[in-house]
Write a structure and sequence with these properties.
By secondary structure, this protein is mainly alpha-helical. It contains 20 helices and 6 strands.
């Protein structure tokens, strides 16, 4: 479904393309295990394997005779840096600023070093990494099964007490596993991955994880609908499906899995403001616009909660406001918040025809949608998915690419792009 643009290598051996694909695979894989640290630098910042590995691409970029840059991403990150530096004396610098700068580097790497890869190559990279991550998560949860039993034994707890490979909570880990499900389109393993991912989302009691998992399954079903409709016309098939569904429901009830996993997660999902997690978010959001009026020019990337606590006079244990749009509004001011919203709307308006067929556009769309409930912005994996898509994009978004000549470059860029 995602064969939007294909690239051929001219004057460049095929093994060089395989080398580029392998190196970018490792980059994405290390980004999936972003909680691995080499050394902590400050309270929130740390030097990670993915940071050191990304530096290997710098000499490869420096020898190119031209660089391709995405103007909206460059301007946006530049403005984020400007606002953050301007507020350094008042709020200090947050490690989130480094995330934005690192994200810009990742987009540049994908658009330049990965410019010779096809859409299918990028799909392979994401899918392989998703399979490895899912396997690692399953093994990790088995090893830390006591944390899951603790969750079962304590009905007042929101999530299992297990460590994560991505982000600071099981919500983020579950969400990214769900977003990766979109990239199994066309794979024989898509229903196994999507099914395991949905179960994990319920096990983690992650509302965003459940929502993303369901949306991914529905999106993967789209190309199967004609075939599925034909099968459902057969009475025998309908009876088999009903029997399987009944047997599965009986097994879930009999084993207690329904009450322990599914029912508990669903209760949180539909609880609304009465759920402690939702109530905490609403408490923060109540002061968001008041805080933005107090700091109309922003307070710097990652400083949202400091400003929020100053205005509200309340203490919040959260590291972010759980809404990327409000986070941008407070962190980067009215101009930065409006610019981010405009960039998101503009991107999906230009790519609207690809929403139902392109895994990158679909995953980024769901990411931006669920950003109303979680994430803090500057997400490494979001920048990578965006960079991968921009590396193969055809159509209106190509006009956003700025080609910059490198006077010190020695290597001719030999990749030629071909449309379908």
């Amino acid at each position: 479904m995602i064969r939007e643009g294909k690239t051929v290598f001219m004057g460049r051996p095929a093994e060089h393309k395989n080398t580029a694909k392998a190196m970018l695979f490792v980059l994405f894989l290390l980004s999936c295990f972003q909680n691995l640290k080499i050394v902590s630098i400050a309270t929130e910042a740390a030097l990670k394997p993915v940071h050191l590995y990304a530096l290997l691409f710098l000499p490869l970029l420096c020898v190119r005779k031209e660089w391709k840059l995405n103007v909206p991403v460059l301007v946006y990150v530049g403005y984020v840096a400007l606002v953050s530096l301007a507020n350094q004396g008042t709020f200090g610098l947050s490690s989130l600023l480094l995330n934005y700068l690192f994200g810009l580097l990742l987009v540049v790497v994908c658009m330049n070093y990965g410019s010779g890869l096809t859409g299918d190559d990028w799909i392979d990279i994401v899918r392989w990494c998703a399979e490895i991550l899912m396997a690692a998560v399953l093994v990790k949860n088995i090893v830390q099964f006591d944390g899951i039993l603790w969750y079962f034994d304590n009905p007042d707890k929101g999530h299992p007490a297990v460590s994560t490979f991505i982000g600071g909570s099981v919500n983020i880990e579950s969400s990214w596993l769900g977003l990766f499900a979109f990239f199994f389109v066309g794979s024989r393993w898509k229903w196994i991955y999507a099914g395991v991912n949905l179960f994990l989302a319920f096990l983690y009691a992650s509302r965003c994880g459940i929502l993303i998992a369901v949306l991914a399954i529905l999106w993967l079903l789209l190309p199967e609908l004609p075939k599925l409709w034909t099968l459902l016309q057969k009475r025998k098939i309908r009876l088999i499906l009903l029997a399987v569904a009944a047997a599965l429901a009986a097994a879930l009830y009999a084993t207690g899995v329904y009450d322990a996993v599914f029912k508990r997660a669903l209760v949180r999902f539909i609880a609304g403001p009465s759920d402690p997690g939702n109530a905490g978010r609403i408490r923060m959001w109540d002061y968001a616009f008041q805080t933005s009026r107090q700091y109309p020019l922003g307070c710097g990337a990652g400083n949202c909660m400091k400003a929020l606590m100053q205005v509200s006079g309340e203490f919040y244990g959260e590291a972010n406001i759980h809404n990327v749009y409000l986070q941008n509004l407070i962190d980067h001011g009215w101009l930065g918040g409006a610019a981010y919203l405009l960039l998101v709307v503009r991107f999906f308006w230009k790519e609207r025809r690809k929403l139902w067929s392109n895994a990158f556009v679909a995953a980024l769309f769901v990411y931006c949608g669920t950003s109303l409930l979680q994430f803090r912005g500057g997400d490494t994996l979001a920048f990578l998915l965006l960079g991968m898509h921009l590396a193969t994009v055809e159509g209106p978004l190509q006009k956003d690419t700025w080609t910059l000549r490198n006077p010190f470059g020695t290597r001719q860029n030999t990749e030629n792009r071909m449309g379908n």
